[in-house]
Design goal:
The structure is a homodimer of 112-residue chains. In chain A, helix 1 crosses helix 2. In chain A, a hairpin with a 5-residue loop joins strand 2 and strand 3. Chain A is globular and about 60 Å long. Chain A is an alpha+beta fold and 112 residues long. Chain A has a 3-stranded antiparallel β-sheet with strand order 1-3-2. The N and C termini of chain A lie far apart (39 Å). The first copy, chain A, contains 4 helices and 3 strands; from the N terminus they run H-E-H-H-E-E-H. The interface between A and B is large, with 36 and 36 residues. The structure holds a DNA duplex (30 and 30 nucleotides).
Amino acid sequence: MAKTSGKSDMLPGTLEMLILKTLTLGEMHGYGIAAHIQRLSADVLQVEEGSLYPALQRLQLKGWVSSAWGKTPTNRRARYYKLTAAGRKQLASEVSDFSRVLGAIQAVMEGT
Amino acid sequence: MAKTSGKSDMLPGTLEMLILKTLTLGEMHGYGIAAHIQRLSADVLQVEEGSLYPALQRLQLKGWVSSAWGKTPTNRRARYYKLTAAGRKQLASEVSDFSRVLGAIQAVMEGT
DNA sequence: CAACCTACCATAGATAATCTATGTATAGGT
DNA sequence: ACCTATACATAGATTATCTATGGTAGGTTG
């Protein structure tokens, strides 16, 4: 059994922005990032692990997040990610792009 | 030289919705559809021909649009596309999905 | 103590949607 | 005669997602 309606989990191109935004709340491990996004979105956004980890690696390669191994409060091994300064700038830029494109889409969807 | 800011032309996953919406205004040829989207979006959305024609073919295969050759007002050969009844339903469904996902994204982007 | 569940990381391969580049054709203007 | 804009179309590359799989380890339950 499954979703109320609709078929897709994610809007392609938005996952990195969601991850960066989540990391503004403090450093977090991958599993926690996914859980956070899923929770705040009321389960609308499902972050699959096969999307999540490659995305985190891309973000690291680009220097927007850094990471280190650590322990969770429940004593489990986990890789903790945190935003870099460059990552903060990138987030601002992605937010601004997104809202620009979103405005454009809405203009078309309301257009005569 | 190029765009004011930002890098990407389209939000992947939204082009078919934009095309379907455009066709609610009446039948139109491919080039005209692209021009319309670009114009209403104040040039933010650039519909490349390499994206447009494959998308139109997908829409036809799924039975959401139909097409026929015709002549433009300026006497050029062009393929005119029009929404089918199934296409109208599909558009409604895509609009509803899009706003649901968008709401979810915004919830994350505003979240604590 | 064995079985199981959940948290947690990670990769390989498939799928899908876009872009870049290229090619064709023709109407109308200069 | 040439050029530009309109118009269609495809091939191949790129990118981002998903599906499926596999592993490790802590805690709980039978």
